[in-house]
Amino acid sequence: MPTRRATAALIPAAVLALAGPAAAQAIPIRNVVLVHGAWVDGSGWKPVYELLRRRDLNVSMVQEPETSFRADVDAARRVLDMQNGPTILVGHSYGGSIVTEAGVHPKVAGLVYIAAHAPDVGEDEAALGRRMPSVLARTEGAIKRTPDGYTYLDPELFPRLFAPDLPRERAEFVARSQVFAKAEVFSTPLTEAAWKTKPSWGIVAGNDQIINPDLERFYYERAGAPFIVIPGASHSVYESHPVQVAAVIEEAARKALERTR
Fold this sequence. Notes:
- The chain is α/β, with parallel strands linked by helices and 261 residues long.
- Helices cover 34% and strands 17% of the residues.
- It has a single domain (8-19, 27-255), classed as Alpha/Beta hydrolase fold, catalytic domain (Rossmann fold), CATH 3.40.50.1820.
- The strands form two sheets. The protein has a seven-stranded parallel β-sheet, sandwiched between helices.
- Residues 32-247 form the AB hydrolase-1 domain.
C-alpha cells in the first residue's frame, strides 16, 4: 500500500482559464457535491459552482439544516444517493466533519477539505479546536446562543472574523442571513473517518480567523492529503478565491481514481 505524503504548494490562479476543452474531456470523475459549513448556506458556493460547470462537471450543493450532526450527514447522503457515478465530496469548515462522516458512501471517490475540520473516529471538532484555538475562540462574545440552544456569529463581528476579504456589502449580507446551528453539532463525536480510506486534498486559508490554519495543516498532514496554502485568504476562501478552490477540486476529480491508500 503506497504511502501518501502531504505537500504544500501554490496553484496558479489562472490554471482553470488556461485549461482547454481537451483537458476538460480528460477528467474521469464528473460529479462534485459541495457541503457548506456552519452559519452559512449553499449559496456561497456559487462562484466555485460556476467555474466547475464551465468544465462540464455535474455539481450539486447540499443544504444541511444544521439542526443536528446526524441530520446534516443524512442531508449529504441524500445528495450522494442521487449521483450517477463516482463523486468528489467537498466540505468547507464544519462541512469537513460532515464529509468525513458521509464520505464512506460507496459513490465517493475522493474528498476535498476547504479550510475544514477533518476529525478522526471518536473525535469532535470542538475539542480539537480547543487544542489549537482560533482568533474566533479568543474573541469574547463572538459566538451567540439562542435560548433554545442554537448558535450564530455576532453579525457585527462576522465581516471581520469570517469574511474580511469579501466586499463589505457581501459580508454584511451573509452575516444577516446566517443559518443558526445547533450547538451540539460541533461536539458530536464522529463514527467514521472517510479520509482513512478515500484519497483526500486540502486547502489552508492563510488568514483564517474561524479555524486556526495550523489545525487545518494538522488535519491534512494526518490524512496524508496534498494541500495548498492560500496566503491572506479568510475563512470565506471558497468565495474570495474560487479559482484556486475550483482548481483543487478539479485536481481531485482527475486523480482520485488513480490514488490508493
